[in-house]
Design brief:
Length: about 100
């Protein structure tokens, strides 16, 4: 399953502060979870075909290989600490997905 996290930084949180934390803590911690196939974070750069600003500043993509294990992983103390910092820095919507196939 792919989980998408669409988010903006909260007022007072700088891009530099968030991105340093993401590189030093969030990315390595989440990517090391047994339930995660891959974890990637993207900074949005625009809206295709428009000068409008993107509605979200960042997108995380979590490729979860085992949802039961993921539940256990995110309940661990280390992940709870990472999640608390993340929630303090961003306003986020998490979307779970189901792939359509032909």
């Amino acid at each position: 399953m792919l989980i998408f996290a669409l988010f903006n930084l909260k007022p007072g949180v700088s891009v530099e502060e968030y991105e340093a934390w993401a590189k030093e803590s969030d990315l390595p911690t989440v990517d090391a979870l047994a339930s995660i196939e891959s974890f990637r974070v993207f900074r949005t750069t625009g809206v295709l075909g428009s000068d409008a600003p993107p509605p979200f500043g960042y997108i995380e993509v979590l490729d979860v290989k085992d949802m039961d294990q993921f539940g256990a992983d995110v309940s661990a103390a280390a992940m709870q600490e990472v999640a608390a910092v993340f929630q303090g820095m961003v306003e986020v919507t998490f979307l779970t997905t189901e792939e359509l196939t032909a």
